[in-house]
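Recap for those who missed Tuesday's class. We walked through two folding examples back to back. For each one, the amino acid string is listed first and its predicted C-alpha cells come directly after. Nothing is annotated here on purpose, so try labeling regions yourself before you check the end of the notes.
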Amino acid sequence: MEKIKIITDSTLDLPAELIREKDIEVLPLLINFGEESYLDGIEITTKEMIDKIDATGVLPTTAQVTPNRFEKSFKKYLDEGYKIVALTLSSDMSGTYQSACIAKDMLESDDIIVIDSRNVTSGLGLLVLKACELRDKGLGIKEIEEGILKAIPKVKCSLNFESLENLVRGGRLSKTAGTIGSVLGLRLILEIKDGKMSVKDKVRGSKKALKKLVSDFESTDVDFDSPIVLLELLNEDVYQGLKIYFQEKNINYIDAKVGCTVGIHSGIKPCGIFFFEK
C-alpha cells in the first residue's frame, strides 16, 4: 500500500484534534495587519484576531500560501517516501491552488496530485476528510483524485452571516446595503456555488435564519453516511438551535469553529451546516 500524505490549507475549518487524528498536513495562509503578518491558526487564533481588530479598528487582509512553502512541504514528504494529494480552497477565492501547482512543477514529480476543491471553510474540510477515507481504504493517489473530483459537486452548505460589517469593510458589500441590512436585522444565507460564495437568501432575525438553515438541510437528499459539519463563531442563537435539532434527530455531526481567514470575511457571527448530498 502506498504511503500517502494529505496536504491542505488553513481554510478547511475542522477541529484540531480531528486534523491530528487523520494525519493531515495543514499549511496556513497569512493574516496581515499592515506590516505585521501571522500564520493562520499558528501565530494567531481567531479570538486573538478578533481582539486585535477591535483594539486597532483595522480589518486584516489575507495572503495565499506561497509556492516556496508548498515546495518545501512537498519535498519533505517525497523524501520520506510519501506520495502526495494536496487539496486547496477554491482557485476563485485565492491563488493558493496556483501556488501548489507551481510547487508541483518545480519538483517535476508525478507523485503529487493537486486538486482545486472549488470550496472553502468546512466544504474544503469535508473533501479533505473524504481524501483521508479513500487513503485509509488503500486507494492510490490517482484513485483518490477521481473520488474527490466526483465528490466536489456533492458538497452542499447553508451558511448564515449575522454580521454584515466585515463584508462591507472588505468591499464585498456596499455600505448602503450593509446599513440597510443592519437596520432591518437582515441575515444573509450563503452557499458555495461554482467555486464562490453566493447569497441565496436574506431573512430577518436569528429565528428565521435557523428555520432557513434547517429547511435547506431537510430539502436535500443528505448522505448521512458521510460527515456533517456544524460550523460557527460566536453565534449562540442559531448554533444552539442547530445543536438541538441534530440531537433530536439523532444526527451525528462534527462541531467546528471558523478560522482566521474565513472569519475576516464572515464577521463574528457566522453559523451553518456543511454536508454531502447523495
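Example two. Treat it independently of the first, because the proteins are unrelated.
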Amino acid sequence: MADDSSAWDDLMELPADPPDMRLVCLNCSRPQSVCWCPFLPVSPLNPNCRVVLLQHPAEEKRSVRTAPILSLALAPGKCLIFKGKKFPHARHEGLADILASPNAILLYPSSTSVSIETLDLVSQDSEKFYDLVLIDGTWPQAKTIFNNSPILRNMKQVTLTNHEGSRFVIRTQPTDKCLSTLETAAKALALLENCQEIQEILLKPLNAMCDFQLNHGAVTHHSKEFCIQNQIYPKLVGKRLSKLMRNACKDNN
C-alpha cells in the first residue's frame, strides 16, 4: 500500500496544464527558433520569368523543404504550385495551358535535355519571359511524375551545367551535381535574366535554414554518389541507382 500511495502522490504533483507548445512562425510555419523569414528579401523579387512547381504530395509533409522559400521570396503570381502525382489534372486550373505554351521549359535531366545557357536571355525592357517548370520531390518521385505525365515529355527540356554542389547540406542528394528545387530555380532565373544577385538573394534563407538545423543537432549529408564512392553508404543500392552512380562518376572524370 505504501508503494501505491507514493505513486499516487507523484501523480498528484504533475502539472494540470499541458506543456507549452513551441511558438510557430505564421509566415513560414517553422518554429520561431529556426525561422528563416528574416533572411527573405525585404520586397519580394519580381523577375520576368515565372516558376511553376509540380509538387509531389509527399513533399509538402517534409519538415525541411525549399519550395516555401520560393513562394515567399518571389512576388505574388511568380511562383505557382500545383500538387499531384500526374499532370495536368482537372483540378489544376490553367496548368495545361502553361505546359503547352512555347514559353514553358522543363528543368529536367532527360536524354534530350539541352543546356539552359543555349536559351535566349530575358531582358528587363522586353516582353519575353519563360515559365520555368520544375518537379518538386525526390528523384524517384520526380522520375515517376515525368513518366506518368506525357505532356512533360513533349516539352522543351533543359538542364543546368557548370554549377557548384548543393548548399542544401541537411538533405541527401543522389549525386554531387544534384540541386534542391530552390537552388535549381534560383540558378535558372539568375542565368536567364542575367542577374547573379537573384540567386544569392534566394539562397540566403536556405543558408540560414541549414545553419539553424546544424546548430540544433542535424548533421551534414553527403550525396549518395559520394557515400558510395567512399564506401560509407549504409543501404543496399538497386540496379537503377547503381547505374546512375556509375554514369555520374564517368561524367565527373
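Answers for example two:
The chain has a mean pLDDT of 84.
The first helix runs from residue 2 to 12.
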